[in-house]
Amino acid sequence: MAAEEINEDYPAEIHEYLSTFENSIGAVDEMLKTMMSVSRNELLQKLDPLEQAKVDLVSAYTLNSMFWVYLATQGVNPKEHPVKQELERIRVYMNRVKEITDKKKAGKLDRGAASRFVKNALWEPKPKNASKAANKGKSKN
């Protein structure tokens, strides 16, 4: 595949898929090399707790996903293997972290400013006595 030759051991229709798969494996290999070049403790010291949780969850999800693929290549149905429940459990925690992140990004409400804004925006009828006094002052002139 390095020379983009079509091997006669498999059908020509899947050559493009296999080339894409090989490129993806190369990209994963490069990412793993980059991630493994820094010690885990050193990496986690630079991150806040939420970011640490994200790194741990992505690592666990990636590892279990790769195991899913391994099972499939070995002829085992991964949908009937406990790895499926593990992936679901990790996905639940990923959703929780996403909710926390979204809450942090949400705007904060300044109640005092909001109440002043609403109070000034609402129409208030003038008292009846004030309008009569204003009319009397105008008619005398």
TrEMBL record:
Keyword rRNA processing: yes
InterPro entries cross-referenced by the UniProt entry: Exosome-assoc_fac/DNA_repair (IPR011082), Sas10/Utp3/C1D (IPR007146)
Keywords: Cytoplasm, DNA-binding, Nucleus, RNA-binding, rRNA processing
Matching Pfam families: Sas10_Utp3 (PF04000)
GO MF term list: DNA binding; RNA binding
Leader sequence residues: none
rRNA processing as UniProt keyword: yes
Domain of life of the native organism: Eukaryota
Subcellular location as annotated: Cytoplasm; Nucleus, Nucleolus
GO cellular component: cytoplasm; exosome (RNase complex); nucleolus
GO terms, biological process: maturation of 5.8S rRNA; regulation of gene expression
Its job: Plays a role in the recruitment of the exosome to pre-rRNA to mediate the 3'-5' end processing of the 5.8S rRNA.
Subunit structure comment from the entry: Monomer and homodimer.
Family: Belongs to the C1D family.
Protein name per the record: Nuclear nucleic acid-binding protein C1D
Organism: Hipposideros armiger (Great Himalayan leaf-nosed bat)
Source species taxonomy: Eukaryota, Metazoa, Chordata, Craniata, Vertebrata
Gene: C1D
